[in-house]
């Protein structure tokens, strides 16, 4: 359904997307994951024919996006990062407008199905400007589905959405997958990435890991040591200043990526004790995708630093 080969996109001298390669199969939910500025939005906009690539091949539905842009756009749905519907039109009118754009003649039955599907039927006469953030996103999704696209592109669809609406949105996406639609989404949320069939972790325009979430997590062959201490902030500062210790802070606890528990915990405990910090609790936990991603980003930064020094 999607084939990307050595995609490069520049803005003046800044390389936003740097040699990205991946493919997406029919019926798959594929997640492009990374922090702000990683190149996610640029990548998805190139795939949707909204930006021209500077180099590389982009094939959507076996069509070259640079040569068959309109044909591709008629067969895909796109939910942009920003709310792009008309605030002075009602829910019904917005869906009708997008049906007209895609030349969907008998859209009323389809609209009723989508309103029911997104649970917006009771609000069909409400202006889009009067909807909550979560309801706006569901309306935008309904508009992007009115023409029954084969691929749905979602650019950070749950940013700024409350937890309940996020859960509803994911339930809708799960139901779409059951119907065989292919979903390509970008997200900065690692918990959302865990729901995807496969994910590409993106950092500074490059894909630094690509596989299923479980395989990415197991690829490092490391466990995570969770530590709670008497002074969590001081403990974190002490540990992160040791180049051999990979420490990450999450609220009131520290996660440390380790390979040899006995050897590495002894060093951590000794280091903290020398700084007057007591460990009040510790346990080994399974590494999350977030743990692994942070580790990989730091490793990538170390590589780039070494190359600069050389």
What does this 3D model show about the protein?
With 310 residues, the protein is of the alpha/beta class. It has 2 domains: 2-212, P-loop containing nucleotide triphosphate hydrolases (Rossmann fold, 3-Layer(aba) Sandwich); 221-286, Alpha-Beta Plaits. 38% of the residues lie in helices and 28% in strands. The chain is built from 11 helices and 14 strands. The protein has helices spanning 40-47, 69-73, 91-101, 108-117, 133-145, 163-178, 190-193, 213-219, 232-240, 261-274, 289-309; strands spanning 2-11, 14-24, 29-33, 55-60, 63-64, 76-79, 151-155, 182-187, 198-203, 206-211, 223-229, 246-250, 253-258, 279-285. Strands 6-7-8-3-9-10 form a 6-stranded mixed β-sheet, sandwiched between helices. Strand 12 and strand 13 (253-258) form a beta hairpin. The longest helix is centred in the last third of the chain and has 21 residues, at 289-309. The model is unreliable at 306-310 (pLDDT under 50).
In brief:
With 310 residues, the protein is an alpha/beta fold. The chain contains 11 helices and 14 strands.
Mean pLDDT: 89
Distance between the termini: 42 Å
Radius of gyration: 23 Å
User: The CATH topology of the largest domain, please?
Assistant: Rossmann fold
Please, how many helices? 11
Overall structural domain count? 2
Query: Main beta sheet: strand number and arrangement?
Result: 6 strands, mixed
The H-level CATH homologous superfamily of the largest domain, spelled out, is P-loop containing nucleotide triphosphate hydrolases
Beta-strand content estimate: 25-35%
CATH level-1 class of the largest domain: Alpha Beta
Number of strands: 14
Give the name of the CATH architecture of the largest domain: 3-Layer(aba) Sandwich
Strand order in the largest sheet = 6-7-8-3-9-10
Order of helices and strands: EEEHEEHEHHHEHEHEEHEHEEHEH
Structural class: alpha/beta
Global geometry: globular
Helical percentage:
25-40%
């Amino acid at each position: 359904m999607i084939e990307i080969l050595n995609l490069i996109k520049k803005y003046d001298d800044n390389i936003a997307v740097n040699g990205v390669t991946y493919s997406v199969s029919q019926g798959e939910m594929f997640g492009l994951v990374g922090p702000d500025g990683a190149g996610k939005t640029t990548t998805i906009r190139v795939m949707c024919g909204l930006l021209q690539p500077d180099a590389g091949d982009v094939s959507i539905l076996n069509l070259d996006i640079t040569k068959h842009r309109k044909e591709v756009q008629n067969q895909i749905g796109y939910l942009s990062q920003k709310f792009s519907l008309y605030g002075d039109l009602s829910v019904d009118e917005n869906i009708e407008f997008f049906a007209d754009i895609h030349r969907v003649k008998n859209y009323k039955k389809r609209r009723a199905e989508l309103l029911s599907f997104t649970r917006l039927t009771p609000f069909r006469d409400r202006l889009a400007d009067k909807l909550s953030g979560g309801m706006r996103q569901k309306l935008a999704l309904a508009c992007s589905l009115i023409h029954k696209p084969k691929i749905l592109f979602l650019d950070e669809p749950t940013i700024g959405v409350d937890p309940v609406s996020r859960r509803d949105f994911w339930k809708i996406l799960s139901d779409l997958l059951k119907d065989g639609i292919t979903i390509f989404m970008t997200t900065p949320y690692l918990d959302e990435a865990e729901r995807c069939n496969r994910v590409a972790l993106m950092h500074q325009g490059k894909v630094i890991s690509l596989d299923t979430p479980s395989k990415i997590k197991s690829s490092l062959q490391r466990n995570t040591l969770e530590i709670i201490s008497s002074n969590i902030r001081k403990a974190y500062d002490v540990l992160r200043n040791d180049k051999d210790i990979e420490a990450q802070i999450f609220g009131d606890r520290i996660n440390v990526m380790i390979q040899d528990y006995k050897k590495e915990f002894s060093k951590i405990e000794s280091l903290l004790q020398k700084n007057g910090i007591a460990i009040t609790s510790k346990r080994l936990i399974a590494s999350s995708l977030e743990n692994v991603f942070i580790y990989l980003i730091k490793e990538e930064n170390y590589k780039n630093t070494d190359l600069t020094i050389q």
